[in-house]
TrEMBL record:
Organism superkingdom: Bacteria
Cross-referenced PANTHER family: SLR8022 PROTEIN (PTHR37694:SF1)
InterPro entries in UniProt: RmlC-like_jellyroll (IPR014710), RmlC_Cupin_sf (IPR011051)
Record protein name field: LuxR family transcriptional regulator
Amino acid sequence: MEKFSLDATAREQLRAAQAADSGRSATTLVGGHERILRQTVVAMTAGTAQSEHETAAGEATVLVRSGRVRLDADGHVWEGRDGDLLVMPVGAHTMEALEDSVFLLTVAMR
């Protein structure tokens, strides 16, 4: 069994994102390419956006730990803030941090 502090990891990733030219930082806590389940803590500074990309071949959710994000997929827009769980639609999408934000991305590969 392993144990992680999401609060500590979120703080670390946000500090790293604030120091990065890209305004982003991420670390995978559980899983990886060889596993079905992958959980990654992602931090983005305000105004930072991930360019349009495809959802991985599987199901995914975003649990907003802090801040406020905007998910835009196929002409539909959802905003999430502290504690919100967004279910990622399949297909192309963008993610933008409206405030300094940290979220837990969970992907279950098919």
